[in-house]
Amino acid sequence: MNAAIVDLINLVVQYATDYLMPLLLGGFILAAIARVLITITIHRQKRFVKEFSKRVHQEIMANPEPHGSFYSLVKRALTRTYFENFELRARYRRRNEDHIMTVGDRVFLIQDGIIRLIDDFLKHVRYLRKETGQQPDFHEISNSVFAANPIFNRVLGVFSLSRTNDVLNILPSIFIVGGIFGTFLGIMRALPELTAMDVTNAEASKLVIDAFLIKISFALSTSILGIVLSIVMSFMNTLLSPTNTYVEIVDAFNSASEILWNKSLTNDAGGVDSSLSDRESEAVDAFDLAIASLHAKRA
User: Fold this and answer.
1) pTM of the entire predicted model
2) What's the whole-number average pLDDT of the chain?
3) What are residue 118's DSSP bridge partners?
């Protein structure tokens, strides 16, 4: 039993010392790519919310007096934002040469995520009532809509964003532990060579000691690599953290929703809004077609 354990340990020492540094470097590269993918996904959401907020403030400047239905106002603003950021850009991409963002939106499923976001938010606010005199908790509604979005919760529609982010946050510690582990493995592999040292032969002993010190110095380089990767990964996790950006997104969406709620007189979700311009009517029709198409694909 003990012999089997020793053989297993020797096997681990032999292969770990050879492949640990490439493994650390490979893990860091994959982690950096994942961090960039998460950042792109979250910042694309932020861009949409920023455009939505801009159109809400344009509405306030154009019509400062309270009027209309909240549901109609928020649907008009959301669908117009969607239409002008996706549908119109897709129509004019040849003229604008804006292929990069179009491909990016397709790869990250941004357009599908925005469609689901708008649809879910409209479902949440459809039955709110102005007659109660109490303002709804739009912060909770906004947070719920973004958190429950099945597309924005995943990177490239496959990997869980929250779990991937949690793993990336603990990687700096893993890199340090991996580096120290590699150093101990290197020392463990080098120590048996000292048994070949002949104290009666100074020249041969010097060769053994020199070879031992070279392997020890190489083993220490694993710790250095682990520390460097840990520092770089910590900076990336801090500078590209999605947490603060997510809070900004929810706060901005909440603020825009509250503005439209306070600006409206009712929350009548029925009927056709005759005050829509041609562009706004086209935007509503385009969104209704997009949500119908999305539901059809998932049916």
Assistant:
1) 0.77
2) 78
3) none
